[in-house]
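Design a sequence for this backbone.
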């Protein structure tokens, strides 16, 4: 998916596309990606990522995750990346290594890298947005380079 739609795309005016010098790619411009609240209200039985940031050239990854009623993401640790978690619908509980925190609409949590967390949805389910730095792509290296 390109960062900017070409001029003449339905719903996009020519003013929405930045113009750059001949031979260079158009400059990226801010744009609406989705309606998080509408996606969060989708099929309550759906589990997992219901939306992902997929734009090329991005420096971030983002996911809208839905957990059906009373489902959970088991305890895990993200060793490399800090994560922001924003609750957009429903309720639940964030379990950490030393306490639990209520997950309610509008709550924004910082999950530092190395911290353990468990996310459990309440009886009406839970939808939350996660945002973190983009992971580098998998790289193929020689055996000697991988060991150094």
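Sequence:
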């Amino acid at each position: 998916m390109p960062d900017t739609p070409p001029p003449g795309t339905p719903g996009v005016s020519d003013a929405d596309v930045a113009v750059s010098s001949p031979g260079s790619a158009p400059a990226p411009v801010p744009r609406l990606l989705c309606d998080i609240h509408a996606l969060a209200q989708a099929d309550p039985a759906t589990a997992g990522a219901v939306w992902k940031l997929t734009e090329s050239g991005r420096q971030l990854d983002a996911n809208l995750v839905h957990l059906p009623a009373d489902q959970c993401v088991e305890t895990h640790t993200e060793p490399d990346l800090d994560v922001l978690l924003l609750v957009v619908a429903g309720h639940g509980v964030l379990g950490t290594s030393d306490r639990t925190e209520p997950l309610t609409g509008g709550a924004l949590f910082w999950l530092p890298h190395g911290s353990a967390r468990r996310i459990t949805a309440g009886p009406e389910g839970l939808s939350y947005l996660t945002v973190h730095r983009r992971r580098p792509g998998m790289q193929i290296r020689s055996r000697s380079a991988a060991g150094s």
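Residues 36-40 form the longest helix (5 residues).
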